[in-house]
Amino acid sequence: MEELEQGLLMQPWALLQLPENSLLAKTYITKQGYALLISDLQEVWHEQVDTSVVSQRGKELNKRLTAPPEAFLCHLGDLLCPLLKGIACPGKATFSCDREAETLILRVRSELSGLPFYWNFHCILASPSLVSQHLIRPLMGMSLALQCQVRELATLLHMKDLEIQDYQENGATLSRDRLKTEPFEENSFLELFMVEKLPEACSVGEGRPFVTNLQNLYMAVTRQEVQVRQKHQGTDPQTSSSTSVQGTDGQLLNQPEEPVSSAPPLPVPEPTDTSGSVQRPQLSKVKRKKLRGLFG
What we know:
- Helix content is about 40%, strand content about 20%.
- It has 9 helices and 7 strands.
- A hairpin with a 2-residue loop joins strand 6 and strand 7.
- The model is unreliable at about 245-285 and about 290-295 (pLDDT under 50).
């Protein structure tokens, strides 16, 4: 079951579009069981089961079907994979959601081997530690990573300003006035951003911007978390004892996106001479020649 927990942590969040509403969801399905996490941005629900539970529930809900739990798991993967990717469910599959007390039930109706297939995901309220593991800690890590990126970009812009200043002091002029920019002032930029851009940037809505734009970074942060944990436990981060169930499109149901760096390097301070004054970057002849088309 530990593998299901670890596999679920490294999966991206997706938008689960249902007739009643939209939910955030992530799932990890193997031949040994599945783990599912669902949130409406108010509460978080969770279910994790092994093959024994899958077999028992499959028999209770599908009395006419005789199949091993692996077949049920594979079919659930085929149904959930396209749904979480925003693709129409294959066949006549339908999903609906009900809430009973502190339980969220995700109901599935489809066909398997020409017979009706029914499944109910019984999700209970997630524990505070699980919410922290899948949301609070990753979001804090993402915020720190984005802050490092902002500092790195600000440093790069300042170096570019020094480079342009060097050209200008050596007689270069712009051939097109519309390309002229003012030197970058980080404090002014941040103040203007807070006033003009922050309200729009913080529009969470139903979570679509989060699942659309930030899942590469989310997975990089959670992958880093898993690797640190495995390093402390003395296990190999690359080792996995089971295989994810494949969807109908031939891709692994839980195949991660291309990894990205979870935290950019810290900004490099400007070089100074022994007197403490800032040194301008030395420009090579090749770079000067390349930019001569822009400056007269």
